[in-house]
């Protein structure tokens, strides 16, 4: 167990103020007492990725299946690296790698499509 994790456990057990989910999300190898809190972080990171990639795809301009496929690979890949390498959580506590990989994926996909279409239409429509 890392030193940061032990300090966090000790501080919480002594009645200290609990760290916000976003401060833990940006710090590697955090202790997640509440599983839903970590799933919320995964969900909202996906939404941020969807907006950023939708804007980029609309400006570039990417079209068709290639844009969708690249979005899916980047979205799944970045989140997989986040929870497996950066946070180093035990995926089995959350139902396995597949459950974490698909958490919030469809809503982020829909948001990505909306942002992509809006930006593409606004910039490239003649």
List the helices and strands and how they pair.
Elements (H helix, E strand, L loop, with lengths): L2 H11 L7 H5 L9 H25 L4 H23 L10 H6 L2 H20 L2
Offer a few descriptive terms:
126 residues; mainly alpha; elongated
Task: Walk me through what this model shows.
InterPro entries: EMC6-like (IPR029008), RCAF1 (IPR010742). It is found in: Endoplasmic reticulum membrane. It is a multi-pass membrane protein. Its main location: endoplasmic reticulum. With 126 residues, the protein is an all-alpha fold. The protein has one domain. The protein is 71% helix and 0% strand. The chain has 6 helices and no strands. It has helices at 3-13, 21-25, 35-59, 64-86, 97-102, 105-124. The radius of gyration is 18 Å and the shape is elongated.
């Amino acid at each position: 167990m890392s030193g940061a994790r032990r300090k966090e456990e000790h501080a919480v057990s002594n009645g200290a103020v609990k760290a916000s989910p976003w401060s833990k999300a940006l710090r590697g190898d955090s202790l997640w007492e509440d599983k839903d809190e970590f799933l919320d972080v995964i969900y909202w990171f996906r939404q941020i990725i969807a907006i950023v990639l939708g804007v980029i795809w609309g400006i570039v301009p990417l079209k068709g299946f290639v844009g969708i496929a690249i979005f899916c690979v980047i979205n799944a890949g970045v989140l997989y690296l986040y929870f497996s390498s950066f946070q180093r959580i035990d995926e089995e506590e959350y139902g396995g790698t597949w459950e974490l990989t698909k958490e919030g994926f469809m809503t982020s996909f829909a948001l990505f499509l909306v942002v992509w279409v809006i930006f593409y239409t606004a910039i490239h429509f003649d």
